[in-house]
């Protein structure tokens, strides 16, 4: 409890109320009200954020198609491996940005609302990202 109170203290200094995911508190990030087993949590993003994410994913998708074409053309293995590395890096960058937005928005908001279970959810998510 002391650790969470300390975390909230610092989060209040870093992210004042209403400054989450670059949008207002009302339109922020994850819908953590989906508590029932049948209802999935959702994330509401502003159009600009969503557009930027889709653009990045489209570029990654194009890179993967390019790798497939390289394999079909029997291109040199090291050349393909370099492209695979570029895709991996792009996905890691995308994941890092998504995680950052989640922490700045959803996690901060839920902690301020007293929903401490969000810390366990975040830790489980981080464990899966290893």
What does this structure look like?
The chain has helices spanning 2-14, 47-72, 77-112, 117-128, and strands spanning 30-31, 42-43. It is mainly alpha-helical. The chain has a two-stranded antiparallel ribbon. Helix 3 (77-112) runs antiparallel to helix 4 (117-128). It is elongated, with a radius of gyration of 19 Å. The protein starts with a helix and ends with a helix.
Q: What is the succession of H and E elements? A: HEEHHH
Distance between the termini: 27 Å
Radius of gyration from CA coordinates: 19 Å
Number of discrete helical segments: 4
How much of the polypeptide forms β-strand, as a percent range? under 5%
Strand order of the largest sheet: 1-2
On the 0 to 100 scale, the average pLDDT is 80
Q: How many β-strand stretches? A: 2
Shape: elongated
Which structural category do the helix and sheet elements fall into?
Answer: mainly alpha
The helix content, as a percent range, equals 55-70%
Low-confidence stretches: 16-27
**Biggest beta-sheet profile:** 2 strands, antiparallel
């Amino acid at each position: 409890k002391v650790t969470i109170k300390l975390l909230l203290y610092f989060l209040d200094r870093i992210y004042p109320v209403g400054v989450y995911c670059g949008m207002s508190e009302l339109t922020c990030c994850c819908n953590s009200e989906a508590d029932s087993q049948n209802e999935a949590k959702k994330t509401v993003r502003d159009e600009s954020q969503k557009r930027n994410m889709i653009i990045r994913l489209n570029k990654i998708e194009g890179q993967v198609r390019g790798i497939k074409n390289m394999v079909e053309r029997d291109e040199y293995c090291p050349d393909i491996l370099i492209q695979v590395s570029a895709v991996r890096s792009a996905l890691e960058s995308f994941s890092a940005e998504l995680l950052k937005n989640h922490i700045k928005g959803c996690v901060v908001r839920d902690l301020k609302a007293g929903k401490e279970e969000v810390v366990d959810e975040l830790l489980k998510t981080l464990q899966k990202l290893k």
